[in-house]
Amino acid sequence: MHRVLRPGGLFLNHGITHDEEGWERNIDTEFINRYVFPDGELDTVSNIQHGMEHAGFEIHDVEGLRPHYALTLRHWVQRLEAAHDEALQHVSETAYRVWRLYMAACALEFEAGGTGVYQILASRRGAAAPDVPLTRRDLYD
Question: How do the domains of the chain map onto residue ranges?
Answer without folding.
Answer: 68-114
